[in-house]
Amino acid sequence: MPLKRIDKTPMPERDAGLRAHDFQEVNEGYDFSRAEFEAERCLRCQDPVCIEGCPVSIPIPDFIHAIAAGDMPGAAMILRLANPLPAICGRVCPQETQCEQLCHLGTRFIPVAIGYLERFVADWERDQPLGQAPALPQRSEKVAVIGSGPAGLVCAGELARLGHPVTIFEGLHATGGVLRYGIPEFRLPKEILDWEIGLLERLGIEIVCNIIIGKTITLDELFDKMGYSAVFIGTGAGLPKFLGIPGENLNGVYSANEFLTRINLMHADQFPEADTPMKIGKRVAVIGAGNTAMDTVRTALRIGAEEGIIVYRRSKNEMTARIEEHHHAVEEGVEFKWLTNPIEILGDENGWVTGLKCMKMELGEPDESGRARPVPINGSEFVIPVDVVVLSIGNNPNPLLVKTTAGLETNKKGCLVVEENTAETSRRRVYAGGDAVTGAATVILAAGAGKSAAQAIHKDLSQTVRPTSISSQPV
Ligand SMILES: Cc1cc2nc3c(=O)[nH]c(=O)nc-3n(C[C@H](O)[C@H](O)[C@H](O)COP(=O)(O)OP(=O)(O)OC[C@H]3O[C@@H](n4cnc5c(N)ncnc54)[C@H](O)[C@@H]3O)c2cc1C
Ligand code: SF4
Questions:
Q1: Tens-place pLDDT, residues 276-309
Q2: Distance (Å) from CA 261 to ligand 1 centroid
Q3: Which stretch of DSSP H or E encloses residue 350?
Q4: All structural domains of the chain
Q5: In whole angstroms, what is the distance from residue 215 CA to residue 398 CA?
Q6: What is the distance in A from the centroid of ligand 2 to the CA of 125?
Q7: Which of 1, 103, 118 is the pocket-test mutation for ligand 2 (most atoms within 8 Å of CB)?
Q8: Fewest CB atoms less than 10 Å from the CB: which of 78, 80, 297, 343?
């Protein structure tokens, strides 16, 4: 077996010592020779199981073959038709647990670097002059999409392609959802996000910011007053969870959502030039070990923390962050306190954080999540001196829309309940997808949910209303 079948072509990345202090992107991307070499590793299987691992069903071997054949326009077209966010997904998708996990090459060697190749093609496309916007069918039934995260964006894009006039209503002053306010610039540059959203806007999608559905206008008004025929809810899971331990109200305690939003969206690290202030800690403890926790602790280092510490009650084996994110955090000097459970946040007489009181844990039998249950070790209390604590222990959907809309069924976690095949909620012609349905999950799952909901909406609307495209008009 030649060596090229075994090794994955490495992704060039910036030196950890340099990058840990700025927000420039960590991964540098393949050049053509690396991409071609990696593309040649693909076996073009008769049974391309990699596609089954992709929630938007990208024809993976086809786009990889096009790279190997030097047909970059072809590769770009195959990719973009299946996934309107390839430059984003090529950067942030957990491919190692999706398409790459199923790749046949991975049964004996290292899987094809599908994500790196996706990013390469999308970045190539970005350097090309824009062609004409595609001519699309035109239908009369307009659809409202609530939320401009990946679920809403992909749903809107697919509906526009199918001919529906679409308006996205976004509560914040900027689009993108977590892609903009959560995932930091050093993993997902905002110019990439702007570019992919710009391509969707070229399909004719209207985006209206600063409108909170359920507050500015209600969901019912979208139907009754504004004449929308269907609504897609892609409002995400932006309500942070808290631990309920003493000291959570002290100054210098943030949820990861608030911490990242203040930096990514409001540029609080540049206060007073920016309007939003925040406490820039010297020793920052981040509680949790998912992707959000890694983003938070690495951001804390970049805005001036001397020490960034991850505090997690289980061991490294149970962390939910991507291996690559953990690896980058280690390289950048993040300290990890595994099997450590916070029990109190300590403060001074002025109400500012001074430390995090913790207990050491050991692993017991698996819990309902299937992961080993952390069990406290008696008498193991100790204090980590810190001046900022960030909680990154998960999010639930925001209840606002459900509280202001009659008849929307939710489960115990506050997630919207939808019909499996159509993504329709308990309200007729109201559909939902992404984190609002699954709870905090991934970009590509949200994108996949948006895409299939759009197809279900189109099918539903097509069964009752006739198209009004120019070709169907009587002459
Ligand atoms: C810091 C962080 C890092 C992450 N890293 C990764 C990663 O590396 N890879 C990965 O795959 N996933 C990652 N995720 C998860 C991923 O970002 C989410 O699963 C995904 O963004 C969910 O998409 P969504 O469209 O359902 O919701 P969101 O992205 O949350 O978007 C929802 C949008 O709806 C808007 N909205 C909410 N309510 C209303 C309302 N009533 N009216 C109008 N607008 C409203 C919100 O303002 C928001 O813009 C990360 C998450 C975080 C927080
Ligand atoms: S499973 Fe792997 S080797 Fe086979 S077609 Fe997909 S990417 Fe290529």
A1: 889 999 999 999 999 999 999 999 999 999 999 9
A2: 12
A3: none
A4: 3-126 (1.10.1060.10), 143-238+396-472 (3.50.50.60), 242-393 (3.50.50.60)
A5: 13
A6: 23
A7: 103
A8: 343
